[in-house]
């Protein structure tokens, strides 16, 4: 199967969020997309950018990539939905590698470089029975921004890491090409390949660390991630644990 995906791209100066915009305008965008396989919406600025479970994504106007991709992966069953998050995370790794930037994935799908957050991902899925009908993949990638508001997770940008500026549209096209290649692997059903590549890049995998859940702090080793995205831990008393996003925090 070919790696090529035909993207129909739309750019807006300002939206509330690209995920919301692409959802609300999907019918019109598909009608204008011809034979495109996927829709893409980008914006210079978001007034209500969102991350996982309502986290806010802040970005200076025009400095960063704010993008949503709408795909129809109806070949995917519900129990394999996390493979979409893994696919875009791997595509971001591939794209950053082309710019000489080494990154890791922080479970479930934040992209870190130099121990700081470079990119965030938000995947929103609509279901049709046991299959996925469509998915909106939101990406916020810090490119040229050098000053950030104070926050708990210290951010970083491509410009800060390399001491040079980038063309945001060029980075967008690089990422879309990398996504097309990884998405082709997903369409082939090579889930083990996707999972293995993801685990190799997962921050803290196979390392004993301190974690914190609702019961307190404990020592554990990350031993895997389930097909539906749950973090799998082995505690130091040989108890195996499973967590959804935000149920546990890794303490570095």
Characterization of this structure:
The structure is a single chain. Helix content is 26%, strand content 33%. It is an alpha+beta fold and 252 residues long. It folds into two domains: 7-201, Bira Bifunctional Protein, Domain 2 (BirA Bifunctional Protein, domain 2, 2-Layer Sandwich), CATH 3.30.930.10; 208-251, SH3 type barrels (Roll). α3 packs across α5. The radius of gyration is 18 Å and the shape is globular. Mean pLDDT is 93; it is low at 51-55.
Summarize the structure.
With 252 residues, the chain is α+β, with helices and mostly antiparallel strands. Helix content is 26%, strand content 33%.
Task: Please bin the fraction of helical residues.
Answer: 25-40%
Q: Which structural class fits the helix and strand makeup? A: alpha+beta
Counted beta strands: 12
| Distance linking N and C termini | 41 Å
Q: What best-fitting shape do the alpha-carbon axes yield?
A: globular
Query: Into how many domains do the coordinates divide?
Result: 2
Q: Please name the CATH topology of the largest domain.
A: BirA Bifunctional Protein, domain 2
Unreliable stretches covering 5 or more consecutive residues: 51-55
What series of H and E elements makes up the topology?
Answer: EHHEEHEEEEHHHEEEEE
Largest sheet: 7 strands, mixed
| Average pLDDT level | 93
Rg over C-alpha atoms, rounded to the nearest angstrom: 18 Å
CATH hierarchy class name of the largest domain:
Alpha Beta
CATH architecture label name of the largest domain = 2-Layer Sandwich
Spatial order of the strands in the main sheet? 1-2-3-7-6-5-4
Number of helices: 6
CATH evolutionary superfamily of the largest domain: Bira Bifunctional Protein, Domain 2
Provide the β-strand percentage band: 25-35%
């Amino acid at each position: 199967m070919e790696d090529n995906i035909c993207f129909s791209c739309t750019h807006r100066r300002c939206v509330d969020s690209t995920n919301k915009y692409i959802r609300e305008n999907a019918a019109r965008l598909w009608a204008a997309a011809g034979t495109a396989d996927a829709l893409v919406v980008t914006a210079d600025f978001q007034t209500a950018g969102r991350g996982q479970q309502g986290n806010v994504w802040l970005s200076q106007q025009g400095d960063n990539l704010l993008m949503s991709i709408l795909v129809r992966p109806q070949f995917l069953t519900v129990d394999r939905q996390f493979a979409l998050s893994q696919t875009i995370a791997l595509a971001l790794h591939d794209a950053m590698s082309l710019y000489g930037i080494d990154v890791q994935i922080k479970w479930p799908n934040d992209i870190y470089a130099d121990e700081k957050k470079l990119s965030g991902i938000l995947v929103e899925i609509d279901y049709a029975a046991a299959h996925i009908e469509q998915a909106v993949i939101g990406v916020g990638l810090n490119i040229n921004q050098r000053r950030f508001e104070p926050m708990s997770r210290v951010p970083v940008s491509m410009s800060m890491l390399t001491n040079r500026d980038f063309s945001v549209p060029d980075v967008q096209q690089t990422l879309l090409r990398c996504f097309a290649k990884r998405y082709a692997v997903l369409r082939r059903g090579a889930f083990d390949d996707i999972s293995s590549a993801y685990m190799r890049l997962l921050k803290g995998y196979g390392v004993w660390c301190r974690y914190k859940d609702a019961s307190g702090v404990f020592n554990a080793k990350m031993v895997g991630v389930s097909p539906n995205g749950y973090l799998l831990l082995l505690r130091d008393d040989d108890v195996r644990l499973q967590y959804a996003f935000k149920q546990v925090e890794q303490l570095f």
